[in-house]
Amino acid sequence: MAQTVYLETSIFSFYFERRTSPAAVAMQGWTRQWWNNHRHRYLIATSTAVLAELDTGNLPHRKEALNLAMTLPAVAPEDEIGKIVDVYIEHHVMPRDPLGDALHLALASFHKFDYLLTWNCEHLANANKAGHIRRINTLLGLYVPMLITPLELMGDE
User: Fold this and answer.
1) How far is it, in rounded angstroms, from Cα 10 to Cα 98?
2) Rounded CA separation 109/143 (Å)
3) How far apart, in whole angstroms, are the C-alpha atoms of residue 157 and residue 135?
4) Which domains does the chain possess?
5) How confident is the model at residue 96 (pLDDT cuts 50, 70, 90)?
6) Is residue 42 classed as helix, strand or coil in its secondary structure?
7) What gap in Å lies between CA 157 and CA 152, rounded to an integer?
8) Mean of the per-residue pLDDT values for the chain?
9) What digits encode the pLDDT tens for the residues 37-76?
10) Backbone phi and psi for residue 71, each to the nearest 5 degrees, phi listed first
11) What angle do CA 12, 14, 16 make, to 5 degrees?
12) How far is Cα 116 from Cα 139, in angstroms, rounded to an integer?
């Protein structure tokens, strides 16, 4: 069976990135390379939270990013998700924004995605946070998805 990947908001945003800094250009290239050449290897999905975030954002490429996200199945937050988000925030695993990173981590963990794909290396794909996330998810009896960037899911390429 194919592995599962939850795509959070930054993936869709970087696909249509318009900034010209070397880092932004590289991240856009890797995002597009993963999307165009590697996503077919996985069962991918996003969430209604991502769709809402893209729909209400003020990105110049908001419409394009939302349209791309809408091509995927979207999981919806359930009652348990709010409780998980609260625990993440109480234990300082994620920032206090209940509709941000904590929500994406809770959705990916609750739905047992193998990977949470993100460009958010400050709060999600961050090796310094991995142990803390693993401890809290284990205490909650939750699956611990790998938190990675598209670059890490391209293998040898």
Assistant:
1) 17
2) 5
3) 32
4) 4-153 (3.40.50.1010)
5) low
6) coil
7) 10
8) 90
9) 999 999 999 999 999 999 987 888 899 999 999 999 999 9
10) -80, -5
11) 80
12) 20
